[in-house]
Amino acid sequence: MSVIAELSIFPMDKGDSLSPYVARAVDVIKASGLPYVFGPMSTSIEGPDFASVMAVVTACHTALEADCGRIHVALRLDSRTGPMGRLAGKMQSVLAKTKTGGQ
After folding, report:
1. Which CATH number do you get for residue 71?
2. What is the pTM of this model?
3. Phi, psi (degrees; rounded to nearest 5) at 101
4. pLDDT for 44-62, tens place per residue?
């Protein structure tokens, strides 16, 4: 099985510069050991099952709630039977079909 989560998490009570808080969540994701892709608006994480991915989401929330009074979480999940590796595979499949081949 492969579960991909697209996660956007940040505090809503810390002003305009939120990068230190987003970095804290990214550190949690890195430490999980799960494959991930960091992007400008969200981070995608792939795990072998729902529980492992949700454990990372929970850990990110816990890391922020220590000093954040209001936290915004946007989460989308894609669960599919079959092997891991879809995080990269999905992007490669689309890029291979573009006119420039991903360039």
Report:
1. 3.30.70.930
2. 0.90
3. 65, 30
4. 999 999 999 999 999 999 9
